[in-house]
Amino acid sequence: MLVEECPYNDPSCLLKARRAAAARVGADALLTITEATAVDEYANVSAILDLTIAGIWLVPGHHRDALTVAEGAMIDNRNEYLYVFARGEAEEHLVRPFASWKAARPSRLRALRAFGQEFIRQASELRNK
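Structure (tokenized):
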């Protein structure tokens, strides 16, 4: 709600808009997290059995693979000093009849969990410096 909209072709505008929004609320640091998910679907040879009702459930022939990458950085809002950078990845593979969209969600959750663990590990090293 506080972040101004940016033109699609101006990648530097988004960071400036986020920093301005953080400054409006008096935040000293800014955490940005970006997540991307790629989903690949394909059917194997046994998908021909989908023509029969029993074949759909006995020999699932549809595959869905999802890969999610979550990256984030915490920067000082005043001087853009990078405190922490973390990255988490996760894959999910489903073989089901008419493989549903459900591969992407577990992949996203595990990637965010991996990101969170890495972020906490990196942030805990700040205390030692």
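The mean pLDDT is 85. Residues 104-128 form the longest helix (25 residues).
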